[in-house]
Amino acid sequence: MAEIEGARRSGPTLRDVARHAQVSVATASRALTSDYPVAEPTRLKVLRAVEELNYVVTTRAPKRTPATSLIAMVVSDVISPLRSLVATGMAEAAGDYGRLSSVYITGGDTRREDEVFARLEEQDDVEAVIVVGGVEVTDEYEQRMAAHAHALHARGSQLVLCGRPPLPAGVPALVVEYDNRGGAYAATSHLLSMGHRQILTLTGPERSTTTIGRVHGYQQALADFGVDVDPALVIASSADRSGAYQSCQRVLGEKLQFTAIFAHNDVMASGALAALKEQGLSVPDDISLVGYDNIPVAQELSPPLTTVYMPHEEMGKAAVRLAVERPAPGSGRERQLLGTHIVIRTSVKPFRHLGSGARPV
Predict the structure, then answer these.
(1) Within this chain, do residues 163 and 197 fall inside the same structural domain, yes or no?
(2) For labelling, which of 122, 162, 336, 356 has a CA lying 20 to 30 Å from the CA of 133?
(3) CATH code, domain carrying 38
(4) Is 361 helix (H, G, I), strand (E, B) or coil?
(5) 105: enclosing H helix or E strand
(6) Which residues of the chain have pLDDT under 50?
């Protein structure tokens, strides 16, 4: 896996143009893509910078062969088991298609991500850029991604969003994502079917598209079972072990009433499990626990974790298939939704209703 060390042009780059025009890389990219709207004064500034720097704008698709084509994956990190598995699937599929592949790490920094895109947009060998992971969708995010999509498209390359929602209509980007809502619905429904009614959910960052989808699934399952959503049982946390551990410690200290926890990923579930054990609570005898992802650690926990299976490697493979095959607009194949299913282990136990209808914590 390679961090950013892409091939550089001998002359000025798009990043140089952006700096000279005092605009963002994304804005410079938009200004040089005729089919994307940019304010005329801004476009003129960028064109002036192009002229002053003698920057060569390439708008025709370069000639590539499979053996010289690169499929690039842009990701915040590969420490996460999820992203590592997606990268594995992508690399395997790229090899099956006879393509080279490379991973570019941004550390979750938006500016770094733009720099990565700017460099990839300058490389003739880039057949596709696959950007991976949930994101907070804002107007600024959509504008940045649309600009990158158009810049890649102008050079015959393709943007694929992996685990992210579609961009606005007309943006040349393909999408493969998980059914976050369906997976969360299945996890919550499983707990409800086991008699639990007070189900605490530990979520990731509130505005993340992944969190939003999973909270919607949780809420829909409660509604379908005739259970009111208690906002106090929806606990936002950082999407890691320490964040979930601290959040769980806090709610236990507040004596919040719940009989089960649905954690939005398995790493968070492991943090919740540690906090529960520290308080002398047993899983599943006192509290039932469900995770999400089905990463290897899920079956190694004590007790082994009931969780939602997500086809991580298949997501990487599906993203490469989209990148190479490039389904036509309107074909119905531009967006692929990968299914999930629940994996039953031993961290959930039927709840025996007491007189109050809740087990005290």
Answers:
(1) no
(2) 122
(3) 3.40.50.2300
(4) coil
(5) strand 100-105
(6) 1-9, 60, 354-361
Is the distance from CB of 55 to CB of 17 less than 8 angstroms? yes
pLDDT digits over 265-286, tens only? 999 999 999 999 999 999 999 9
Handedness of CA 29, 32, 38, 40 (dihedral sign): positive
Q: What is the 3-state secondary structure (H, E, C) of 321-353?
A: HHHHHCCCCCCCCCEEEECCEEECCCCCCCCCC
Is residue 70 in some structural domain?
yes
C-beta contacts of 280-286 below 8 A and 24+ residues apart: 281/252, 281/361, 283/347, 284/346, 284/347, 284/348, 284/349, 285/349, 286/359, 286/361
Instruction: In whole angstroms, give the CA distance from residue 290 to residue 303.
Output: 11
If asked whether residues 123 and 260 sit together in one domain, one would say no
What range defines the domain where residue 33 resides? 14-178
Within-domain flag for 185: yes
185 in the same domain as 103: no
From 323, 290, 337, 302, select the one nearest 64 (Cα to Cα): 323
CB 176 within 8 A of CB 160: yes
Tell me the β-bridge partners of 160: 130, 174
What is the three-state SS of 136-198?
Answer: ECCHHHHHHHHHHHHHHHHCCCEEEEECCCCCCCCCCEEEEEECHHHHHHHHHHHHHHCCCCC
The answer to whether 212 and 245 have CB atoms below 8 angstroms apart is no
Q: Are 346 and 303 in contact (CB under 8 A)?
A: yes
Instruction: Compute and round to an integer the Cα radius of gyration of the chain.
Output: 23
Residue 306 DSSP class: B
Distance CA 147, CA 258 (A): 46
Helix, strand and coil percent figures for the chain, each rounded to 5: 40, 15, 40
- Other CB atoms within 10 Å distance of the CB of residue 200: 24
The letter for the amino acid at 115 is E
d(CA 173, CA 160): 6
Instruction: List the structure tokens of 181.
Output: 């809502």
Cα distance between residue 17 and residue 23, in whole Å: 9
- 209 and 237 share a domain? yes
Per-residue pLDDT tens digits for 19-52: 898 987 777 777 776 555 678 788 788 888 888 8
